What does this fold into?
Amino acid sequence: MNLPNILTLARIFFVPLVVAALVQEHRIYEFTVLGIGVALGNEMLALVIFLVAAFTDMLDGYLARKWSQITTLGMLLDPIADKLLISASLIALVEVRAVPAWMVILIIGRDFAISGLRSIAMSEGYMIPASDLGKSKMVLQVAAVGMAMASLQHAEWQPLTTIVLWASVVFTLVSAIDYARQFWRKIDVGVKRRRRRELLLLERSRRKASRSSVARG
It folds into this structure.
């Protein structure tokens, strides 16, 4: 188990902490950091945990590439950890009425649909890599969730939060269309190759049968 994978697992561990902190009602948590007393409301505590978890997403990928520690386990766990973090945070924000439920349904539904398409593609021997649109979508989702949490205590952020949420939804749908296009293109190519091989095998079988009949005659 290398450090990038440990960071990915830590991100999964942070998910219930974010939800637990966010759904509490007006609680204040007091900490002592370097001898300084710090008091955080539950919304801001959830925001801090969420941002730390989001930071591990950037850090594990950077370290995996830098140290050449990209593993199959990491490639499988990383998108799962991302989806758990974003989905759980958005559902908790719906619970506290910070974001519209329909937006969350679109975002989570898209993630499940694309995960299904990527799984089908992998079963056919194809890997659909993360596109620039997908990466931009993830950045916008992190920004939208973070701002939505912050706006619970800072109402003046709500208009900007709404704009970022809409941008996140738009990028979510556009990136879904891009992934679907890649999926159909790869699967279509795979089906055509398979049919070509089957036709070649069938033609060879016919030729062998024809030669055998000629030899017997």
